[in-house]
Each structure stands twice: as structure tokens, then as C-alpha cells.
Design a protein that fits this description.
The complex is a heterodimer. By secondary structure, chain A is α/β, with parallel strands linked by helices. Chain A is built from 7 helices and 4 strands, in the order βαβαβααβααα. In chain A, helix 2 crosses helix 3. Chain B has 9 helices and no strands. The chains are: A alpha/beta, B mainly alpha. The complex binds adenosine-5'-diphosphate (ADP) and magnesium ion (MG). Magnesium ion binds next to loops of chain B. Chain B: Keywords: Glycerol metabolism, Kinase, Transferase.
């Protein structure tokens, strides 16, 4: 199953997006959320991201939803502590954080593979408000 | 304490002394944490130096890199962390203008790899690239080390100031678009402070 990692500058945002995703998915999807620095400031920490990726390393690929700037840079930095083969299974996607997390978790729970989940995360489509 | 440790201790003091100033610059075009981020990282560097023993200059720089990566929190953490990590890989034990150029190029390469910015995007690169170019030109022209360092310092200062009229293309300031004009980039300012401290310690 494809794993999902949510990275935000805010611990609450990451945690909240994870909760929203978990509520929708059909069955167990490996889900991790990382936000904030270890001393409780807004920001990101590549060590915490590395730990979350390690927890997801048994998944069939990992989709990463990140908010901005240092979230992306610290995620890419954390990738460098894995082998090239492992790194190929990590994909940062261009999708809105919350909608992206919900949809990625749902698609993964259907048993879709990494490429199929990515294909379902079209950022323009996801940004459309549905009621 | 070896010379490189001393230099980084001075850099840490400079950054910590300018915590408010760097934060004020970041408040104008960002989220107002650059001074806090950098001071947090460099306080930890000072703390690491209290207990660690180093057998080479490059080991000191590597330690600084890893400490900034783990403690800064903002974009400047992975950027400076990667820059110093790349520098530690090419740094020789004896200082030379030739090696300084190589270190400078490694720093630029690291920052570009991590942040994908170019010169003119209103980032730390706008202070660093002209500084390294000045060193390189002087090296190729056969200028002495000390004079080359003076030129490098001037270029870094001009580079830092050159960010004022620019519209930011990378980093948080880019979200402000045209409104990022008229403000000096906080990262270019901290880069200038780091370069200034290194050069003043060597000369
Ligand atoms: N992509 C990038 N490439 C190079 N430098 C960048 C980039 N993004 C941000 N910076 C630099 O980082 C500085 C901001 O650092 P800081 O405030 O610590 O991080 P954050 O933007 O995450 O709050 C900016 O002033 C700029 O010089
Ligand atoms: Mg900031």
C-alpha cells in the first residue's frame, strides 16, 4: 500500500490534515504527519521527517504533501539519508495539502499503486471546491 | 579550540548579537523569524563546541552544518546546512586563495541544489555569488590572498545591498510579489555577516 507523509510548518496543521485523511480512507493506509521544530516553533526539522520516512519505508512508495519552502527543502534533505533505490519511492507532489492528503489516502486505500495515486492528485482538479 | 572553531564562534556571536535586526528584516518581507532561526542554530553550535573535539578544520565545518540542519527550523537551516556540508567536503587544512575559491563554489552549488534559486532572485545567493566571483577573478589575476579577501568583502556588501530594489522570486518573500521591493533580504544580510566575520578573522 502507498504511504502518505504530510509535512507542514505547523504541527497542528499536519496533525489535522492527517485526521481528515484518516477519516475518509477505506482501511489502513500508512500515514505520518510531521510539523514544527523539536523545540515547538513553527518550522520543519529534517530529522523528524527522516524518522517519519523510516516508519513508512515498508510501504509501496510514499507520497509527500508539503506546505512550502523549508518543508520541501528539509524533505529533500531527509531523502539523502536513504539509498538511491529507496529515494525513487519517495514522491513530493504538487497538490494542496489538505485536499491532497485526503485524496491520496483514499486512493491508496483502494489499493492503487504509486503512479496511480499521483495521477489522481491533479492540483487544478483538487483545488475545485466540491459540495 | 582550533582556528576554524574560533571563527565559527565569532560568527555565532555576530548572528546572536544581530538576532533582532535579522528578524526585523524578515518581518518586512517574510515571517519574522530569520534572526530567531539563525540564533537558535548558532547557539547550539556554540554548545556543541563546548564538548566536542575536532581533528580537522573540515570536521568543524561538518559539525556546524549538521547542527544548523537539526536546529534552525526555517529555510535557512537546510540551505546553510547544505552549503557548509559541501564546503567541508572540499576544504583543505591549509588556507589558500585557490581553496577558498573552491569552497565558495561548493557553497553556491549546495545552495542552488537545495533551493533552486539563481542570482537576482533576492536571496542569500545575491551576497554570496558576487563574493565568490570576486575571489575567483583575483585568483585568476594572481592577486595576493589578503587583497582578494578585501575585494571579496566589498563584493559581498554590495551584493547584500543589491537585494533592496529586487522583486523576490524564491522563498517566502516571493509571495509578496512587487511588495518585496525596497527591502534588504534577510538571508543575504546574514550571509554578508558570515562572510565579513570569516574575512576579518583571517586578515
Ligand atoms: N529557495 C531559496 N534559495 C536560496 N535562498 C533562499 C531560498 N528561500 C529562502 N532563502 C533565503 O532564506 C531567507 C529566509 O530564511 P528564514 O527566515 O530563516 O526561513 P523561512 O523563509 O523558512 O522563514 C531569505 O531571506 C532568503 O535569503
Ligand atoms: Mg523567515
Amino acid at each position: 500500500m502507498v504511504g502518505i507523509l504530510i509535512v507542514s510548518h505547523s504541527k497542528e496543521v499536519a496533525q489535522g490534515a492527517k485526521e481528515l485523511a484518516a477519516e475518509m480512507m477505506q482501511g489502513d493506509v500508512p500515514l505520518e504527519a510531521v510539523g514544527g521544530t523539536k523545540d515547538g516553533r513553527l518550522g520543519t526539522d529534517s530529522n523528524l521527517i527522516y524518522e517519519a520516512l523510516t516508519n513508512l519505508n515498508n510501504a509501496d512508495g510514499v507520497i509527500i504533501l508539503a506546505d512550502m519552502g523549508s518543508s520541501v527543502m528539509n524533505t529533500e534533505l531527509a531523502f539523502e539519508f536513504f539509498s538511491e533505490e529507496e529515494q525513487e519511492k519517495f514522491k513530493i507532489v504538487n497538490a494542496p495539502l489538505v485536499e491532497g492528503a485526503i485524496n491520496a489516502a483514499l486512493q491508496s486505500s483502494f489499493g492503487k499503486d504509486l503512479d496511480e495515486v499521483i495521477a489522481a492528485l491533479d492540483p487544478v482538479e483538487l483545488a475545485q471546491k466540491k459540495v | 579550540m582550533n582556528k576554524t572553531e574560533e571563527v565559527f564562534n565569532k560568527i555565532a556571536d555576530k548572528i546572536i548579537d544581530n538576532k533582532q535586526y535579522l528578524t526585523k528584516l524578515d518581518s518586512a518581507i517574510g515571517d519574522g523569524d530569520h534572526g530567531i532561526n539563525m540564533a537558535r542554530g548558532f547557539s547550539e553550535v556554540k554548545e556543541e563546541f563546548e564538548s566536542a573535539e575536532f581533528d580537522s578544520n573540515s570536521a568543524v565545518v561538518k559539525k556546524v552544518a549538521m547542527t544548523l540542519i537539526s536546529n534552525v527550523g526555517g529555510a535557512s537551516g537546510p540551505l546553510y546546512g547544505t552549503a557548509f556540508l559541501q564546503a567541508s567536503k572540499v576544504m583543505e587544512e591549509d588556507l589558500s586563495l585557490k581553496n577558498a575559491v573552491k569552497i565558495g563554489e561548493a557553497v553556491i552549488e549546495g545552495i542552488k541544489m537545495r533551493g533552486k534559486a539563481e542570482q537576482g532572485d533576492k536571496t542569500m545567493l545575491d551576497a554570496i555569488i558576487p563574493a565568490v566571483n570576486a575571489l575567483k577573478e583575483d585568483y585568476e589575476a594572481g592577486v595576493e590572498l589578503e587583497e582578494a579577501l578585501q575585494d571579496c568583502l566589498e563584493a559581498a556588501e554590495e551584493g547584500k545591498e543589491s537585494t533592496i530594489p529586487l522583486v523576490a522570486k524564491k522563498g517566502r518573500a516571493s509571495y509578496l510579489g512587487e511588495r518585496s521591493k525596497g527591502h534588504q533580504d534577510p538571508g543575504a544580510t546574514s550571509s554578508y555577516m558570515i562572510i565579513e566575520t570569516i574575512i576579518k578573522e583571517i586578515i
